[in-house]
Amino acid sequence: MLDLSWKLFSMTGTIGSYLLIKEIEKEKDEEQKQQSCEMSDLKEHAGA
Protein backbone atom coordinates (compact mmCIF):
# COMPACT_ATOMS: atom_id res chain seq x y z
CA MET A 1 0.00 0.00 0.00
CA LEU A 2 2.82 2.36 0.86
CA ASP A 3 4.50 1.75 -2.49
CA LEU A 4 1.30 2.54 -4.34
CA SER A 5 0.80 5.72 -2.31
CA TRP A 6 4.39 6.81 -2.99
CA LYS A 7 3.96 6.16 -6.71
CA LEU A 8 0.79 8.26 -6.70
CA PHE A 9 2.57 11.07 -4.86
CA SER A 10 5.59 10.97 -7.15
CA MET A 11 3.33 11.16 -10.20
CA THR A 12 0.97 13.86 -8.93
CA GLY A 13 2.86 15.76 -6.26
CA THR A 14 -0.42 16.45 -4.46
CA ILE A 15 -0.48 17.15 -0.74
CA GLY A 16 -3.30 14.64 -0.33
CA SER A 17 -1.07 11.86 -1.60
CA TYR A 18 1.73 12.93 0.74
CA LEU A 19 -0.63 13.01 3.71
CA LEU A 20 -1.88 9.53 2.80
CA ILE A 21 1.71 8.25 2.89
CA LYS A 22 2.25 9.82 6.29
CA GLU A 23 -0.98 8.35 7.66
CA ILE A 24 -0.02 4.88 6.46
CA GLU A 25 3.44 5.22 8.02
CA LYS A 26 1.90 6.41 11.30
CA GLU A 27 -0.53 3.49 11.45
CA LYS A 28 2.27 1.05 10.63
CA ASP A 29 4.44 2.47 13.43
CA GLU A 30 1.57 2.33 15.93
CA GLU A 31 0.84 -1.27 14.97
CA GLN A 32 4.48 -2.25 15.47
CA LYS A 33 4.57 -0.54 18.87
CA GLN A 34 1.37 -2.35 19.90
CA GLN A 35 2.79 -5.71 18.85
CA SER A 36 6.01 -4.98 20.72
CA CYS A 37 4.07 -4.15 23.89
CA GLU A 38 1.99 -7.31 23.54
CA MET A 39 5.13 -9.42 23.14
CA SER A 40 6.66 -7.80 26.23
CA ASP A 41 3.49 -8.55 28.21
CA LEU A 42 3.53 -12.17 27.07
CA LYS A 43 7.16 -12.56 28.07
CA GLU A 44 6.46 -11.08 31.51
CA HIS A 45 3.51 -13.41 32.10
CA ALA A 46 5.41 -16.44 30.83
CA GLY A 47 8.26 -15.72 33.20
CA ALA A 48 5.96 -15.26 36.20
Describe the structure.
With 48 residues, this protein is mainly alpha-helical. The chain has one domain. Helix content is 92%, strand content 0%. The longest helix is centred in the middle third of the chain and has 33 residues. The chain is rod-shaped. The N and C termini lie far apart (40 Å). The mean pLDDT is 89.
Lay out the secondary structure.
Layout: H1 2-12, H2 15-47
- Estimate the global geometry from the Cα principal axes: rod-shaped
**Oligomer classification:** single chain
Structural class: mainly alpha
Radius of gyration from the alpha-carbon trace, in angstroms: 17 Å
Number of helices: 2
Flag low-confidence runs: none
Number of spatially distinct domains: 1
Organism: Sporolactobacillus nakayamae
Region (Disordered): 29-48
Pfam family, one: YqzL
Protein name: YqzL-like protein
What brief labels describe this structure?
single chain, 48 residues, mainly alpha, 92% helix, YqzL-like protein, YqzL
Short structural summary:
By secondary structure, the chain is mostly helical. The chain contains 2 helices and no strands. Helix 1 (2-12) runs antiparallel to helix 2.
